[in-house]
UniProtKB/TrEMBL annotation:
Residues 29-57 form a coiled coil. This is Cell division protein FtsB. The gene is ftsB. Belongs to the FtsB family. It comes from the Bacteria.
Length: 95
């Protein structure tokens, strides 16, 4: 009878070891869920960035308004006949 109790105790401990420590353990499942949530956040941020870039590409392809706005913002270009005004902050004017 003692040997049966010993075998059953060993089997119980072996199954509990895998549950708490081995592959597929509760700790590993929790860690993987955290990693999954982090990766989903990264994917969502990249999807937002992709949508923004797609909107920008479409606006640049459709007409000159997008190209003109990009040139004005990035390169500081102005149209012929326009006057450019630059306003300095009071701190920049003192330098």
């Amino acid at each position: 009878m003692k040997w049966l109790l010993g075998i059953l105790t060993f089997i119980l401990l072996a199954t509990q070891y895998r549950l708490w420590v081995g592959d597929g353990s509760l700790a590993e499942v929790t860690r993987l869920k955290r990693q999954l949530a982090q990766q989903q956040e990264k994917n969502a941020a990249l999807a937002r960035e992709n949508r923004q870039l797609l909107r920008e590409v479409r606006s640049l392809k459709v007409g000159t308004d997008g190209v003109e706005a990009k040139a004005r913002y990035d390169l500081g270009l102005i149209k012929e006949g326009e006057t450019l005004f630059i306003f300095l902050d009071s701190e920049e004017a003192k330098k």
